[in-house]
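lol forgot to send this yesterday, sorry. struct tokens for the thing we talked abt
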């Protein structure tokens, strides 16, 4: 239970220009809206109840805090959605994106079921924009994949080969850019961006593995204390299929160990050559390559978002003469 918030404790800025602090709940609302503003995505009150970065005691306190922020001109309300700034066409854009996501979700579940049949794949979850129920016409279907320990790179290589040969390397319906093995489920980068991506993962198979993933990443609850777990009613059991099981048996021993190590080293050499302009730190974050994890995010979007949020917070504080501190 979060501590009680008195929304009337806000002290008007003094004439001397000294910064004041908003109450914790109002601060959490503003920070949350600023984060989603990076994606031009307005939030309804029900979204804020789940996404606010502060434990919400009841709907009444949230509604009152929103009313206070709106009255001070800090938050814009339009057709039941809230955002900060101009928000040009944000609401219309969101509704259109939500409708398209609804159509693409069935396709994502079918692709996920197919991915599960590959050798050494233990769980598949929808990630990226679709996991947040938003898509644009050119958006990819992104998947977060959990593999058997010691065989991550075989699983990844087979999936990439399938995409290159049968899908002509198309990313739109088959973007597999993040793999971890089931012995290393804790995400190493722990910040607002990775917490968001993590809590929004939509499980499509192996509900037990999804629950273990969330348990091993309990740190994300500090960013999303109201979020809880995603719906798992439509999760199907782990199912490698007859071909996948046959290959698993064939590659269960030393041959599999050597092939997995070779696949990782080959990928590392190729990425080091292709992204030779990345320094060591950037390569580690954007293209993490270890026996138990494969991350392929060459645009380094994580850093863009984290730094973008810092700037939005700073700009908001300067504009309103307040401090967004919990």
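and heres what i got for the seq, position by position
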């Amino acid at each position: 239970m979060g501590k009680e918030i008195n929304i009337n404790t806000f002290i008007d800025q003094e004439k001397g220009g000294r910064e004041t602090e908003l109450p914790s709940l109002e601060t959490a609302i503003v920070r949350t809206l600023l984060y989603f503003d990076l994606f031009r995505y307005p939030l309804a009150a029900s979204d804020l109840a789940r996404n606010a970065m502060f434990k919400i005691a009841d709907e009444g306190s949230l509604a009152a805090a929103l009313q206070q922020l709106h009255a001070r001109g800090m938050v814009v309300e339009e057709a039941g959605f809230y955002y900060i700034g101009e928000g040009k066409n944000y609401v219309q854009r969101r509704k259109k994106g939500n409708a398209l996501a609804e159509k693409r979700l069935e396709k994502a579940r079918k692709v996920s079921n197919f991915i599960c049949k590959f050798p050494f794949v233990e769980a598949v979850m929808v990630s990226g924009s679709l996991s947040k129920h938003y898509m644009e016409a050119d958006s990819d279907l992104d998947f977060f994949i959990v593999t058997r320990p010691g065989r991550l790179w075989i699983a990844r290589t087979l999936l990439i080969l399938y995409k290159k040969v049968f899908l002509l390397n198309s990313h739109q319906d088959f973007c597999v850019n993040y793999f971890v093995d089931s012995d290393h489920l804790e995400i190493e980068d722990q910040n607002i961006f990775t917490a968001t991506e993590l809590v929004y993962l939509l499980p499509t198979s192996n509900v037990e593995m999804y629950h273990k993933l969330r348990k091993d990443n309990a740190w994300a609850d500090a960013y999303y204390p109201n979020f809880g777990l995603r719906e798992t009613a439509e999760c199907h059991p782990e199912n490698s299929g007859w071909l996948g099981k046959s290959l698993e048996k064939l590659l269960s021993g030393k041959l599999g160990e050597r092939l997995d190590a070779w696949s990782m080293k080959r990928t590392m050499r190729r990425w080091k050559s292709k992204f030779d302009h990345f320094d060591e730190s950037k390569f580690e974050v954007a293209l993490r390559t270890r026996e138990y994890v494969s991350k392929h995010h060459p645009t380094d979007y994580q850093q863009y978002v984290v730094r973008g949020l810092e700037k939005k917070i700073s700009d908001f504080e300067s504009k309103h003469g307040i401090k967004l501190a919990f």
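The chain has a mean pLDDT of 91. anyway ping me if u want another try
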